[in-house]
Amino acid sequence: MIEVLNLIQRANNGLLLFGAIHSEDEMWAALLLAKHLQWPVVADILSGLRLRKLLTSFSDIERNFIFVDNLDHALLSDSVKGWLRIDVVIQ
Fold first, then answer.
1. Residue 72: CB partners within 8 Å, gap ≥ 6?
2. Model confidence at 35, in pLDDT bands (50, 70, 90)?
3. Which pLDDT does position 76 carry in this prediction?
4. Smallest Cα–Cα separation from 90: which of 26, 30, 28, 23?
5. Residue partners of 4: CB distance under 8 A and separation at least 6
6. Which CATH number fits domain 2-90: 3.40.640.10, 1.10.3720.10, 3.30.750.24, 3.40.50.1220?
7. pLDDT tens track for 56-70
């Protein structure tokens, strides 16, 4: 666990990749992690975050996060691949 925390603390360009989230508690935990780390979020459609269904009644929350939609499509571009310098991904 300490190794993981050290890796996160040393990260310059982190990315959070959220897959399937099954409960509202898990969704809030994911959002709290994103808020704490201030890393961009790539949300799988199964997470519920991609559609921002939980955030609709909390519009100020979405402004505190950077959501990257359709990253899989963006990575098809050589210029995006050259620009993107992610050193740590938490999935």
1. none
2. confident
3. 86
4. 30
5. none
6. 3.40.50.1220
7. 555 555 567 777 877
